Amino acid sequence: MKTDWIGYHQNKDLLRTEIWSLLKQQAASIGDCFGHIPNFVGADRAAEKLATLPIWQQAKTIKCNPDSAQISVRMRALQDGKRLYVAVPRLTDARCFVELNAADLQRQNVSIAESALALAKRSEGKPAPTGAAPTKRIARKALACGKLVSFAEMEPIDLVIVGCVAAGRSGGRTGKGAGFADLELAMLTEFGLVQIDTPIVTTVHPLQIVADSRLPMQPHDWPLDWIVTAGEVIETNTSYPRPTGLNWDSLRSEQLAQIPILRKLNEPRRR
How many CB atoms lie within 10 A of CB 184? Predict the structure, then answer.
């Protein structure tokens, strides 16, 4: 299966294709999962289970990925009155996060459900379903009633939710291969917004949990502290080290070319 980000790590490419195929074969995915963070049957129940954990209940500010698999997580965060940060898809804006909260959405007459769904559609480039409100319009409203923020304008993050294609019980993970989650976390760390003990969580289908040996972790990879499914909560007690910031040596040339904030952060290094 060819995706936009194939070819950077052969074993991870094979694993992703295996997981996408398995989810499809077992009718465990919702929609086309190939090339994406897969939306999965039971995602709403996994979000509810996550919301029972102390790390969720104590968190006031949450950073979450914009994918369909975490629609229910974003909805719950807003319903629970938390400040929510969602990255601009592909980090294409110099202010590369959107800040959302329920009060601002209500003032702009955008429902929590609409905003959670629209951000996923915008992220994955999918059209709105037949009969649904136009996705681009909702996405614009969701972004407009939130606000684009720079790192300097953000509050410290209490909990991070990332999307995964596969996860291991010792904390290994892989996304769809683009590296955006790792980049976002590295930059947030550079600005002191994510700390060494900020919990990192994913919600997945049980079929996405694989043997640890299948998830080799590289120096720029961020491990998981928790994995939540519809029926299980796994505390990984990971021994994988966290990156301490951006690993410039691991950045690809196209990332520097396409992501404005990386170019800006790189300017002092080039002088």
Answer: 22
DSSP state, residue 221: P
210 bridge partner residues = 168
135 CB neighbour count, 10 Å cutoff: 20
CATH number attached to the domain at 10-250: 3.40.50.10420
CA 269 – CA 73 distance, rounded (Å): 38
Q: What Rg value do the Cα atoms of the chain yield, rounded?
A: 17
| Domain residue ranges in the chain | 10-250
| Dihedral-angle region of residue 137 (phi above 0 means left; psi in -120 to 50 means alpha; beta otherwise) | alpha
pTM reported for the whole predicted model: 0.86
With a cut of 60, say whether residue 5 has pLDDT above it: no
Closest CA to 205 of 13, 30, 79: 30
First-to-last C-alpha distance (Å) of the chain: 42
pLDDT in tens, 170-228: 999 999 877 889 999 999 999 999 999 999 999 999 999 999 999 989 888 999 999 99
Q: Where are the beta strands (DSSP E) in the chain?
A: 61-64, 83-87, 97-100, 147-149, 159-161, 166-168, 173-174, 200-203, 209-210, 226-228, 233-235
Q: Buried b vs exposed e over 90-128: b needs ≥16 C-beta within 10 Å?
A: ebebebbbbbbbbebbeeeebbbebbbbbbbbbbbeeeb
Crossing angle (nearest 10°) for helices 135-145 and 112-124: 110
CB 37 within 8 A of CB 67: yes
88-125 pLDDT, tens per residue? Answer: 877 777 788 999 988 878 777 777 777 766 666 555 55
- CA dist 69 and 103 (Å) reads 24
DSSP assignment of 107-129:
HTT--HHHHHHHHHHHHHTPPPP
